[in-house]
Automatic annotation (TrEMBL):
GO terms classed as biological process: hydrogen peroxide catabolic process; response to oxidative stress
Designated name of the protein: Catalase
Biased composition (Polar residues): 1-12
Species of the source: Kushneria marisflavi
GO molecular function, one term: catalase activity
């Protein structure tokens, strides 16, 4: 094209130079599409006012409806077409808008506008579960999707990651097999939101490369307490390209400023019934209360010349790079600060694609990533009905879009001009290319030399299937290990075919750890081998035996910010104590929820009243992080006499939560047979218990209670 007067050689750089983003760019961009009905008449889609929205047009009041009723037909016709296919995976999700602000050091590593020092870029983040359908539960044992769309000055960049740093398979060609195996079984569509079934365990036990990721999903990471307490990972090795054109390998990490913490399994399961929307509800409520969610985006940086310095292949998505080997360099901070206006329009229609990258970011040859680059666009064509899904407001970049792509279903853009091809001389060559160079803004792929034979195969450097599973297991605390053993125990108990259970216990788990295999084997009455059966290549070699960063306990918040604490009250409660508890919690950034036997105003001992936030069964203990019991003789008598009142602290105790009782509150603990331990505090005043309460809640749970809690009824 170089000698064509209407092509690239005729251009001298970007043509949309004055385009800049701010944290509000996407909000402003969406505004033109918002529809607020307040103060407006009800009309048909053709704009005709509707006089009666209750009665169809009939031949006589008791007669048949007339075909002529265009108002009825339009309404019914639209309703009949409301549903679109749910996502084939990650169907259940919740999203929020936010802003990403780059730290000064970010621009050292990438020329992308999103990483310019101080640059604010609007974001939209969708969190999801993988296995369940759109109507399943939030707190299932599963991986969580963590997909971020950055509406940058240079176009949309999507970082489509998960809350775990590795994946189940190495090559995208196995993705349909994996998803078929984990999804509800084809003959009866059971089970929903669970991996505890034959097809999943059949597949993963035949695919040793999945061992490490399955281990992660058997850990408490699989039910994060909240979206704000989840880490996020880009998983694949990507590239960042700096202004000089130098490319470095990177792994992306989202580090939650709130720290990481999870549910325990029984609690997560109970929540399925008590509040199936727990995570999404909390995020939406927190954002509307101004309690925003925050993460730092960081990268592990690997210079190109160090590509082969690891015990594993950095192109293998079943491997993480231990943070002890390559620390995470923070590049910026994201704050989620605005709820979507409409679930369908934004959260359901948002279309992520790891193939959406911008200059300064590039792919690697990870075969899982390469396959994803095909799949996302393809699935969106079906789910969102054709190639014009890019014009749906939530998917539009905030940059101008001009190209020669035309037509198809539901085209919104009215392209002017006669020429829809390039080069052209009719429209003076517009829209023109921007030559691929840093100063011109055009996208340029890293100029990697590829000189290879065409081969359908896998590199021997991908043969290690177990060393990082072992690393993860070794890095867990005793309680975490116990939860993992119990998880394998439960999941395999749901597997009907004995040979699948045997395969997991005898051929997979021992390669991770002999003790793990023995303990799971004991639950199933299956003898585990005493030596690792896998080949040396499969066992891999890891120079690191432990990575403390892999334990959830490594990132406990230490503070009680954003924690939800139940304050149990009934008529006659000591209101001064309640007020003191609430204000102390507030001062720490936590929230005290007033929970009473009924929703009727609670009469305090001083004659004042208090409005409850919920009833005992409205916000049960599984929805709360800790329990406080305020004093007041009459209040405690009422709670003691109530089954729900006694059950509340019992359930919280079982789930290793901190419980503190002020004044007569200790009588409720006695009546509920609560075993006293370091996590059960009593005192005559709020001051007497609060500091210890705060310290213990900062550790998330009373882990030392675990052995004793196991001996108590569920
Ligand atoms: Fe995927 C959705 C994350 C491997 C094919 N994926 C999807 C979503 C997330 C991920 C977070 C939901 C996005 C949203 O909220 O809309 N997927 C991952 C990660 C992977 C991964 C972190 C491995 C590192 N995915 C993967 C492979 C393939 C796909 C190997 C196929 C080759 N993923 C899809 C998909 C989905 C999807 C079928 C379903 C809905 C959608 O894309 O938009 O194309």
């Amino acid at each position: 094209m170089a000698n064509n007067p209407y092509s690239a050689s005729n251009t001298d750089g970007p043509h949309d130079t004055d385009f800049k983003t701010s944290d509000q760019s996407k909000n402003e961009n969406l505004e033109q599409f918002r529809n607020d009905a307040e103060g407006h008449d009800l009309r048909t889609n053709n704009g005709v006012r509707i006089a009666d929205n209750h009665n169809s047009l009939k031949a006589g009041e008791r007669g048949p409806t007339l075909m002529e009723d265009f108002i009825f037909r339009e309404k019914m016709n639209h309703f009949d077409h409301e549903r679109i296919p749910e996502r084939i995976v990650h169907a259940r999700g919740a999203a929020a808008h936010g802003v990403f602000e780059a730290y000064p050091e970010a621009e050292r590593y990438s020329k992308a506008a999103v990483f310019k020092a101080g640059q604010q870029t609007p974001t939209f983040v969708r969190f999801s579960t993988v296995q369940g359908s759109r109507g399943s539960n939030d707190t299932v044992r599963d991986v969580r999707g963590f997909a971020t769309k950055f509406y940058t000055e240079e176009g949309n960049w999507d970082l489509v990651g998960n809350d775990m740093p590795i994946f189940f398979i190495q090559d995208a060609i196995k993705f349909p097999d994996f998803v078929h195996a984990v999804k509800p079984e084809p003959h009866n569509e059971i089970p929903q939101g669970q991996s505890a079934h034959d097809t999943f365990w059949d597949f993963v036990s035949l695919m040793p490369e999945s061992a490490a990721m399955v281990l992660w999903t058997m850990s408490d990471r699989a039910f994060p307490r909240s979206y704000r307490s989840m880490e996020g990972f880009g998983i694949h090795t990507f590239r960042l390209v700096d202004k000089q054109g130098k490319s470095r390998f990177v792994k992306f990490h989202w580090k939650p400023l709130a720290g990481t913490y999870s549910f325990i399994w029984d609690e997560a399961q109970l929540l399925w019934g008590r509040d199936p929307d727990f995570n999404r509800r909390e995020m939406a409520t927190d954002i509307s209360n101004g309690d925003y969610l925050e993460w730092e985006l960081g990268v592990q940086i690997i210079e190109e010349e160090d590509e082969h310095k690891f015990d594993f292949d950095i192109l293998d998505a079943t491997k993480l790079i231990p943070e002890e080997q390559v620390p995470v360099t923070p590049l910026g901070k994201m704050t989620l600060n605005r709820n979507p206006d409409n679930y369908f329009a934004e959260t359901e229609q948002v279309a992520f694609n790891p193939g959406h990258i911008v200059p300064g970011i590039d792919f690697t040859n990870d075969p899982l990533l390469q396959g994803r680059l095909f799949s996302y666009l393809d699935t969106q064509m079906l789910r969102l009905g054709g190639p014009n899904f890019k014009e749906i407001p939530i998917n539009r970049p905030v940059t101008p879009v001009h190209n020669n792509q035309r037509d198809s279903f539901h085209r919104m853009t009215i392209n002017k001009g006669q020429a829809s091809y390039e080069p052209n001389s009719i429209d003076d060559g517009w829209p023109r290319e921007t030559p691929p160079a840093a100063e011109n803004g055009g996208f340029e792929s890293v100029n990697e030399r590829i000189d290879a034979h065409k081969v359908r195969g896998r590199s021997t450097s991908f043969a290690d299937h177990y060393s990082q599973a072992t690393l993860f297991w070794n890095s867990q605390t005793d309680v975490e290990k116990e939860h993992i053993v119990q998880a394998y125990g439960f999941e395999l108990s749901k597997v009907e075919r004995p040979w699948i259970r045997e395969r997991v216990i005898q051929q997979i788990l021992p390669n991770i750890d002999l003790d793990l295999a023995r303990r799971v084997g004991e639950i199933h009455g299956i003898e585990a081998p005493t030596e690792k059966p896998a080949s040396v290549e499969e066992l891999g070699r890891s120079t690191l035996t432990e990575s403390p960063a892999l334990s959830l306990m490594a990132r406990l918040p230490g503070n009680i910010k954003y924690r939800k604490v139940a304050i149990l009250v009934a008529d006659g409660v000591d209101l001064d104590q309640v007020t003191a508890l609430q204000s102390k919690l507030k001062a720490e950034g936590a929230k005290g929820m007033i929970i009473a036997p009924t929703m009727a105003p609670v009469k305090g001992s001083n004659g004042n009243t208090l409005t409850p936030d919920a009833m005992l069964n409205g916000l049960p203990s599984v929805t709360m992080d800790a329990v406080l019991i305020a004093g007041g003789a009459q209040s405690i008598e009422t709670l003691k006499a109530s089954g729900q009142g006694r059950y509340y602290p019992q359930e919280a105790w079982k789930h290793l939560k901190v419980i503190a009782a002020v004044g007569e509150g200790k009588d409720l603990l006695e009546a509920a047979n609560i075993r006293m331990d370091e996590g059960v505090l009593t005192g005559d005043s709020v001051d007497a218990i609060f500091d210890d309460f705060k310290t213990l809640l900062g550790q998330h749970r009373v882990w030392s209670r675990n052995p004793e809690a196991n001996t108590q009824p569920a």
